[in-house]
Amino acid sequence: ELKVEQNPLFLSMQEGKNYTIYCNYSTTSDRLYWYRQDPGKSLESLFVLLSNGAVKQEGRLMASLDTKARLSTLHITAAVHDLSATYFCAVERRGSQGNLIFGKGTKLSVKP
Amino acid sequence: DAGVTQSPTHLIKTRGQQVTLRCSPKSGHDTVSWYQQALGQGPQFIFQYYEEEERQRGNFPDRFSGHQFPNYSSELNVNALLLGDSALYLCASSLLQGGSQPQHFGDGTRLSIL
Fold first, then answer.
1. A15: Cα within 13 Å, side-chain hemisphere
2. Looking at beta carbons, which residues of chain B come within 8 Å of A105?
3. Residue of B5, B105, B109, B110 to mutate, interface with A, max A Cβ within 10 Å
């Protein structure tokens, strides 16, 4: 059974600091996604990672994928308050396009 | 260009009732997936529709059923509602031949069961 685990589940950061969110998954997958969800809102796609060693960056967020370790990371650089949200990683079942297995999410709070 | 739209936004039902939720996919998309998101949890895949047929199904009972119409819009039906069905129901659309393009999510329907 494909399982996705994120840690930490809660993260309180000060503005300007760096931190990393980890996403482990249990079986082989072709695609890994990172989404952001603001309170009461829907999910916004951040990154799609397809291959081993893939790295993508957008602003203060950088995501990477290690398929051999079945690990993805979301690194936050010099956090700002606007990054406060819940971040989900999701893994697509191999051979089942669109069937995403989500982690429980990491609730990030960035404080001044 | 409208994104994924869902209706209603909020719904309150009682145990044993039936409910229908609706979803219009993003323009150009042909595939609709439904997810259930309990409070404090990640979304769970319910099922996916393509060409008006259920293409994939997650681990949900038969009380959960769906439909896709020729215009690609979709409905999620839940019968014999239980307290545990209280959740945010998210619809996501995509293009089946879109490769690795991410699914686009709607704002969801918040269903409360009393």
1. 5
2. 40-42
3. B105
Distant-in-sequence, close-in-space partners of A64: CB < 8 Å, separation ≥ 6: A49, A53, A54, A55, A56, A72, A73, A75
Partners of residue B21 on adjacent β-strands? B76
- Check if the beta carbon of residue A32 is closer than 8 Å to that of residue A90: yes
The predicted structure's pLDDT at residue A20: 97
CB-count exposure of residue A62 (10 Å: 0-12, 13-18, 19+): middle
pLDDT category at B1 given cuts 50, 70, 90 is low
In chain A, alpha helices (H)? none
In chain A, residues with a C-beta closer than 8 Å to the C-beta of B107 are: 41-42
* Cβ pair B36, B19 in contact under 8 A: no
How far is Cα of residue B69 from the mean position of the Cα atoms in its chain?
A: 14
SS3 content of chain B, % helix, strand, coil (to 5): 5, 50, 45
* pLDDT 10s digits, A65-90: 999 999 999 999 999 999 999 999 99
Residues pairing with B92 in the sheet: B33, B105
